[in-house]
Specification:
It is built from 14 helices and 16 strands. By secondary structure, it is an alpha/beta fold. The strands form 4 sheets. Strands 6-5-4-7-11 form a 5-stranded mixed sheet, with helices on both faces. The protein binds zinc ion.
């Protein structure tokens, strides 16, 4: 039961008039999740009337959301036609800005990437604005008439509702108006989100079966920083002005190996991020001049997987701090699952026992245990997140 908020009561009433829309989304999600599937099977599983399902399936076919892919086994009468999502046709553009690289990709309804280009992220905001505008315009142009939409993931503070990017701490960009500029340039709607929230959304829609089946979990994104996304009741919990879930800045000590993106040496991020891991590794190797040896995080994790002792030690120490923070989140939020995302998950086997131990310690006696899982989203979870911003609007409930 949820309290009816009288300030928003108009929306609640409007929603009663949209039963058709809700049923349409339910049928669409059955096709997405359980295809190939027939009209009769959807009716059986949803307990919607067969004629209702049929009308909706016809609509979805006409809108190009689903396609017929042949016939199934007959259960007596005619062979039933089977349906699945329409793939291979672009519906979304994802713009994924990370501190090192920026990727712009074209994707279909299933989130498959059809075309992709990546370039180095520059600290020069004017240059990046021009690059993103030019490239998204070029990619979006051929599909302009087909209502293609754009999702953008950025490592910073964003108000998702107004589409405003307040701050990108890594480059100290403030009040970046890129979304409005992309909309002007392409004529397509842009949805922007903080990278951790976008990744959490990607886990909800495109993640492993376990996370797709539950409505409440946490996602910890280990990258240059540490981001956290909270999925609560099947949606991203954003807090006021989108500033919720900034657990990367919770205090984890007072002598971290690196500075946090906010400048402090007390934040969890300064203890448990890729930056912290690289700093620990360099100090074990006694490389003082950071410019002398530019160790790539991917190489470092590869070394750890291959058993190089300094790499293993620095990774274990960093993941120990990651575990401490996760433990605090479990104590406070009691999620069913915590998903860890980022390059560090390639070496999951090296530290999963330690993480599991920490999580067991933090669960109160008698409560079910929180499960810790590595993400299955692959190399670029934030890109999947950016695309997911568009797709979640197509598949999510309208309310
Ligand atoms: Zn901080």
């Amino acid at each position: 039961m949820r309290r009816i908020n009288l300030q928003k009561a108009k929306n609640e009433i409007a929603r009663l008039n949209t039963i058709r829309d809700i049923n349409r989304q339910i049928v669409l999600n059955y096709v997405r999740d359980r295809s190939p599937i027939s009209r009769a099977e959807i009716a059986r599983q949803t307990e919607l009337h067969r004629s209702t399902v049929s009308v909706i399936v016809d609509e979805l076919l006409a809108d190009g959301m689903i396609v017929e892919i042949g016939s199934g086994e007959s259960t007596g009468g005619r062979k039933p036609k089977l349906y699945e999502l329409r793939t291979g046709v672009p519906v979304a553009i994802g713009v994924d800005l990370t501190p090192r690289t920026t990727t712009i990709a074209l994707a279909d309804l299933a989130g498959n990437i059809l075309q992709k280009e990546t370039f180095s992220t520059s600290p020069d905001v004017e240059f990046m604005t021009a690059q993103i505008l030019e490239r998204t315009r070029r990619i979006a142009e051929p599909f302009h008439d087909q209502g293609i939409e754009i999702g953008m993931s950025v490592p910073g503070l964003v108000d998702q509702r107004s589409g405003k990017i307040f701050h990108i701490p890594y480059f100290n960009w403030r009040d970046w108006d890129i979304c409005k500029r992309i909309e002007e340039e392409t004529g397509s709607h842009v949805i922007v989100e903080n990278d951790a929230n976008a990744t959490a959304l990607a886990e909800l829609w495109f993640g492993q079966e376990k996370t797709r089946k539950i409505d409440t979990f946490l996602m910890i994104l280990v990258g240059e920083g540490v981001g956290t996304g909270i999925i609560f009741d099947g949606q991203v919990y954003r807090g006021e002005m989108g500033a919720g879930g900034e657990f990367g800045h919770m205090i984890a000590g007072d002598n971290a190996p690196v500075e946090c993106s906010c400048g402090s040496r007390e934040c969890w991020e300064a203890y448990a991020s890729e930056k912290a891991l690289v700093a620990r590794y360099k100090s074990l190797l006694k490389i003082d001049d950071l410019k002398q040896s530019n160790i790539d995080i991917g190489d470092l994790i590869e070394l750890a997987v291959n058993g190089e002792k300094h790499a293993v030690e620095s990774l274990r120490e960093t993941m120990h701090y990651l575990g401490n923070g996760i433990s605090n989140l479990i104590v406070g939020l009691s999620p069913q699952i915590v998903v860890v995302s980022g390059k560090v998950t390639k070496a999951w086997d090296l530290y999963k026992d330690e993480l599991q131990r920490v999580s067991e310690r933090s669960v109160l006696a008698g409560l079910p245990q929180t499960e810790l899982l590595p993400s299955t989203l692959g190399e670029s979870p934030t890109l999947t997140g950016a695309i997911g911003l568009v797709l979640a609007r197509k598949f999510g409930s309208m309310s």
